[in-house]
Amino acid sequence: MGCRRALVNRQVEGELDSMESLARGCGIRRSMATRFFSDRATSLAVTLKILEALHQMFDDVAKPVELPGTA
Q1: Count H helices, E strands: the chain?
Q2: Which stretches does DSSP call E strand in 1-71?
Q3: Neighbour-count burial of 64, counting CB atoms closer than 10 A to its CB (0-12 exposed, 13-18 middle, 19+ buried)
Q4: pLDDT tens across 8-64, in order?
Q5: Can you give 28-45 as a three-state secondary structure string?
Q6: Does domain 3-58 have CATH number 1.10.260?
Q7: CB count, 10 Å around CB of 53?
Q8: Count of CB atoms situated within 10 Å of the CB of 1
């Protein structure tokens, strides 16, 4: 399941009510949560906090990145 869908599920279940509440629950700024959902760089620590709040496993949502020269 995608992270955006997981956020909606947490909202439907009443655990979260907004991106702001997700950020507060994770102890991060809202801008960091927005970066995460915009596929922009965040630290691993922030990513793991968000995934925990969304009840998602890292291996289920992370996609490998191929670096130039490693293929």
Answers
A1: 5, 0
A2: none
A3: exposed
A4: 999 999 999 999 999 999 999 999 999 999 989 899 999 999 999 999 999 988 877
A5: CCHHHHHHHHCCCCCCHH
A6: yes
A7: 21
A8: 12
Tokens of 57: 């496993």
- State the pLDDT at residue 69: 80
Q: Read off the pLDDT band of 71 (50, 70, 90).
A: low
The two structure tokens encoding residue 43: 């630290």
CA dist., res. 13 & res. 61, Å (int): 21
Q: Are 14 and 20 in contact (CB under 8 A)?
A: no
Domain boundaries in the chain? 3-58
